[in-house]
Structures are given as C-alpha cells and as structure tokens.
C-alpha cells in the first residue's frame, strides 16, 4: 500500500537545488489526487446541476427551477432546515459550554471518564442515537412505560419526538460533543496568567459568571466559533437523524432531496433542491474555512483554530 | 477554581450529572441494552438474551457482514491511498495550492451526504462510466465520504512530524523518493494506521445512505424496493 502512495515529494523550490533533469515542481504532485476528487466529487455535482436545468424530455429548460423555487414545499423545507440547524446549534453551544466548563473548572472524581463517554457519542453513527431516542422517548418507549406505570394507562406522552422540537433535541444530543471537544482543548491551554487573574477576581468578590464573561469567554471564543459553525454546517446537512425520528411532517432540505430523488424519482426537482442546498452549505463552509484561516493566521502557531475544527471533524461520525 | 462555596459546587455538579445522564449515558445505555434485550415492553427489558448477538453471526448475518467488511476495506484502502497522497502533496505545496487541495478534499463532508449520493447516482448511471447497480458505486460512495477524514488525519500527522529527520536524510544525499519511502512514510505509519482504522469504521457505521446509490436506474424505474 505504501508503495502506491509514493508521490515522491518535491523539494522546496530552492534556486540551484536542481539535481536531476526530471525535477517536478512541488505543486504538481497534488494534480493526480485532485483529478480523482474532481472526477468523483466535482463531476457528480456538475451532473446534478446539469440535471436541474433539464425538463422531463431532456431539453434545456429552467422550468424545474421556477416550479421548485416557487413551491411552498421548498420554502417550508428551507425554513424548517434553518430553524432546526440554528436551534440545534444554539442548544449545542449552550449545553456544550456548560459541560466543558464544569469538566475543566469544577474537578470531580471521574471527570476523565465522563469526557471519554462524551467522545463515545461522537463515535456512534447518528441514526443509532436517534434509535436510542425513539426507544427512550417514543410513543412505545421507556418514558411512556414509566408514565403509564405511575399515572395509569390514560396518561400519554406528548408527541415531542416527531415534532421539530424532538429533532432539535436529538441533534443537540448528537452534536454537543462537537462543541465540548474543541472547547475543552482551548480551556486546557488557557494561559496561566489568565487563570490567576480569574482567580484573583474571584477572591475579590467577582462572581463566577463575571469571571467567565470577562476572562474565560474572550479566550475561548475562537474555539466556540469553530465548534458552533461546524455544528451549524453539519445540522444543515443532517439527514439520518431527521429520517430516523420518524417525524413525517418535519421535511428538511436533505429529506426533500431524498424523497424527490429516490422515492418519487423526480430527478430534475431533486437536482434543483440539491443545488440550492449545495450553494447554502458551500457558502457556510467557505465562511468556516476562510474565517478560521484568517483567525489563525494572526497567531504565531500554525492554524490552531483550524486544528480544533479538524479535530472535531475527524472525530465526527 | 471558579466556585468556592461547597453548595454552589454541589448544585453545579448535580445539574451536570443530570445533563450527562440524559444526554450521554441514557442513549449509550439504551443502545447496549437493546442489543441484549429479549422483551422490552416496560421501562426496562424484562429478560436479557444473547440471541440478537447470536443472530448477527448466523450465516445470513455473516453474509451481509462480509459484504459490509469488503466494502469498508476496499473503500478504506482507496481513501487512505488517495488521502495520503493528497495530504503529503498538499503539505509540500505552496500555501494557496495547499489550501485549495485540502478544501477540495473536505468538500464531500461540507455538502450533505444525500447530495453526494444523488450526484454519484446520476453521474455514474450514464456513459462513459456505468456503475449503477454494482458494488463499485457503493465502494466509490463510501471512499468519497470518508476521504476527508483520512486527509485530516494524515495532515495532522504531517504537521507533528519533526522536519529534522527528512532534512538529515536529504543532507546525506537521499533522493526524494527515498526520503519519502524510507523516512516520511515510516514515521507517518501511526497516522496512516489511524486513518485506515477510522476510514473502515466510518464506512461500516456511518454511510448507510450511500447504499442506495447501488440501485440501478432500471430496477428503480420498475419500482424496485428502495432502501
């Protein structure tokens, strides 16, 4: 395997360093993998775009675009997607900040184990978390059984799970570790002096909330932003959780793409929704990469924020 | 450090415990319990059984497991080879080229996996490359979806690599190919192993959506079952 990966890596282009006649410039080695990526990722995207500007007979037309974009179904799905993504991101940020702050600042026995458990959630597929949710909170789930045994057979659980709120709660559960992980990393490298300032502020009578707001928060803001924007991007694209909660009325853009493209085989309109979703995701993604490239280039250390984001990305799934 | 009074610390820890129990422990425990639950009609499973686990290793279960493993291994190998090449080449390339390459490698997770699947379904169910209905389109989809993670892992490994080793090798007159094969890749082995493990695990656990890409046009038009 290793021999296959052998892109004899190029020398930094130092003048006069030419030794052989066949010196290939450093940048040229990225071409073969880039071609593969363009062929197997870029080309399918282009065909999706191409499919969206064809009518049922294969002639060029923008009719699918006008039909889909003016349809209430698309607008509702767009609003629903934004609502669920923003709600889940805010929830994950709040919950994740609390968990990370307690893990970092309120030492208790077993904190390491809890941190490990939170990482375990990251390793699970998202649909498994959702299945666990239906087991726990579904209409035939554990919570319902508890309610029935306590309050009698008449008492039923409100159908939260299949509502947008249920999807948001499931996504908060699954995506909170993406906030906890970079935040814990940032808190663990908090400069010593900052902690001393924080401690002296505390002993002078500043409440813990004030110390958090004035000292800790500004320091970990990049990590929070990295985790938050990653969660926003992933919740925008999330498909498994929405599908597996069985929430029939909760149609997000990925669900719409799936039902149009795979269930009802209306490829042109699936392609239109897919293109719209890709534009949305890529705008957010380039803001994410560009934003954190800028943030980190101010620091001397190479790309710490991107590192934090990538650590979360690597841990993702 | 931030909380001095014993009561406030206790309150914070209690809230923390409840949140962790609901958000982390309950789902994990449910997954584990459900695997061994015989009958689960009440609040807790009324009997425990190893039957489901035994079911997973019966001939049928094994056959589908084998397909998953094959798919995951092939997709993992492909993504590690391409991902390592891309990561090493990007690491040596000048800034803008590096950013462009890494950005493109992460593209498949920046867009929804549904769109990646739809794209592959449309693009490879027509000439020049007809893969619809074969195992190859599933492997391709998995490889594409896990590529970003192998690239990230190898890039992180490269960033931590001490450049002194390769500089020493170069100063002793080693060719670039030799430096790569005898110095850099061996030093990167832990990252490569991590990337391979991650790719196979992700491919087995995380990409069920990619599987519907296998449905070929004809069977689907004829109303074949969709998964």
What would you say this structure looks like, in words?
Chain A has 317 residues and is mainly α. Helix content of chain A is 71%, strand content 0%. Chain A is built from 13 helices and no strands. In chain A, helix 8 (192-203) packs across helix 9 (208-237) and helix 9 (208-237) crosses helix 13. Chain B has a domain at 79-220: MetI-like (MetI-like fold, Orthogonal Bundle). In chain B, a hairpin with a 7-residue loop joins strand 1 and strand 2 (47-48). The interface between A and B is large, with 103 and 98 residues.
Q: Going by CATH, what is the homologous superfamily of chain A? A: MetI-like
Kindly identify the CATH topology of chain A: MetI-like fold
How would a textbook summarize the main sheet of chain A? none
* Helix-strand makeup class of chain A: mainly alpha
Estimate percent helicity of chain B. over 70%
Unreliable sequence segments of chain B: 213-227
Uncertain residue segments of chain A: 1-6, 11-20, 296-317
User: What would you give as the CATH superfamily of the domain at 79-220 in chain B?
Assistant: MetI-like
Most extensive chain contact? A-B, 103 and 98 residues
Please indicate the percent range of residues of chain B in DSSP E strands (runs of 2 or more): under 5%
Rg of chain A, nearest Å: 25 Å
Biggest pleated sheet of chain B: 2 strands, antiparallel
Q: Which CATH architecture of the domain at 79-220 in chain B would you pick?
A: Orthogonal Bundle
Please tell me the CATH architecture of chain A by its name. Orthogonal Bundle
Secondary-structure map with pairings?
The complex is a heterodimer of chains A (317) and B (227).
Chain A: H1 31-52, H2 63-70, H3 72-105, H4 111-123, H5 126-137, H6 142-151, H7 164-188, H8 192-203, H9 208-237, H10 240-244, H11 253-263, H12 267-297, H13 304-315
Helix pairs in contact in A: 1-12, 2-12, 3-7, 3-9, 4-7, 7-9, 7-13, 8-9, 9-12, 9-13, 11-12
Chain B: H1 6-36, E1 37-39, E2 47-48, H2 51-56, H3 59-92, H4 95-105, H5 107-110, H6 113-123, E3 125-126, E4 129-130, H7 135-160, H8 163-171, H9 176-205, H10 217-221
Helix pairs in contact in B: 3-4, 3-7, 3-9, 6-7, 7-9, 8-9
């Amino acid at each position: 395997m290793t021999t296959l990966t052998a892109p004899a890596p190029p020398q930094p282009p130092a003048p006069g360093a030419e030794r052989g006649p066949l010196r290939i410039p450093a940048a040229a080695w990225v071409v073969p993998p880039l071609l593969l990526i363009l062929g197997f990722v870029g080309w399918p995207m282009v065909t999706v775009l191409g499919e969206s500007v064809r009518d049922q007979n294969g002639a060029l037309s923008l009719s699918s675009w006008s039909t889909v974009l003016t349809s209430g179904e698309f607008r509702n799905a767009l609003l629903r997607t934004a609502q669920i993504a923003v709600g889940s991101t805010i929830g994950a940020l709040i919950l994740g900040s609390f968990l990370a702050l307690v893990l970092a600042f309120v030492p208790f026995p077993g904190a390491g184990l809890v941190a490990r458990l939170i990482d375990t959630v990251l390793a699970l597929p998202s649909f498994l978390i959702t299945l666990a949710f239906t087991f726990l909170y579904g209409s035939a789930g554990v919570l319902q059984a508890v309610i029935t045994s306590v309050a009698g057979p008449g008492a039923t659980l409100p159908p939260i799970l299949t509502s947008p709120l249920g999807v948001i709660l499931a996504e908060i559960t699954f995506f909170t570790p993406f906030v906890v992980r970079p935040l814990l990393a940032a808190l663990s490298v908090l400069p010593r002096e900052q902690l001393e300032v924080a401690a002296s502020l505390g002993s002078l009578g500043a409440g813990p909330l004030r110390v958090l707001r004035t000292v800790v928060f500004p320091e970990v803001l990049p990590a929070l932003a990295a985790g938050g924007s990653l969660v926003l991007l992933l919740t925008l694209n999330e498909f498994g959780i929405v599908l597996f909660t069985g929430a029939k009325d909760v149609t997000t853009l990925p669900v719409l793409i799936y039902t149009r493209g795979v269930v009802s085989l209306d490829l042109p309109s699936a392609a239109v929704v897919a293109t719209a979703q890709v534009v949305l995701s890529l705008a957010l993604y380039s803001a994410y990469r560009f934003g954190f490239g800028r943030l980190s280039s101010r620091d001397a250390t190479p790309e710490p924020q991107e590192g934090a984001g990538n650590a979360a990305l690597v841990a993702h799934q | 450090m931030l909380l001095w009074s014993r009561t406030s610390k206790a309150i914070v820890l209690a809230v923390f415990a409840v949140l962790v129990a609901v958000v982390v422990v309950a789902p994990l425990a449910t997954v584990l319990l459900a695997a061994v639950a015989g009958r689960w009609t009440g609040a807790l499973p009324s009997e425990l059984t190893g039957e489901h686990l035994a079911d997973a290793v019966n001939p049928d279960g094994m056959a589908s497991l084998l397909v998953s493993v094959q798919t995951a291994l092939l997709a993992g190998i492909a993504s590690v080879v391409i991902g390592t090449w891309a990561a090493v080449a990007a690491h040596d390339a000048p800034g803008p080229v590096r950013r462009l390459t890494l950005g493109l490698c992460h593209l498949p997770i920046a867009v929804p996996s549904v769109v990646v699947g739809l794209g592959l379904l449309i693009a490879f169910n027509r000439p020049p490359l007809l893969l619809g209905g074969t195992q190859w389109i599933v492997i391709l989809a998995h490889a594409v979806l896990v590529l970003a993670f192998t690239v990230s892992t190898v890039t992180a490994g490269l960033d931590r690599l001490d450049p002194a080793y390769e500089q020493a090798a170069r100063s002793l007159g080693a060719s670039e190919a030799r430096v790569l094969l005898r110095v850099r890749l061996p030093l990167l082995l832990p990252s490569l192993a991590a990337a391979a493990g991650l790719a196979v695990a992700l491919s087995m656990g995380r990409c069920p959506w990619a599987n519907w890409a296998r449905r070929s046009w004809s069977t689907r038009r004829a109303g074949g079952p969709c998964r």
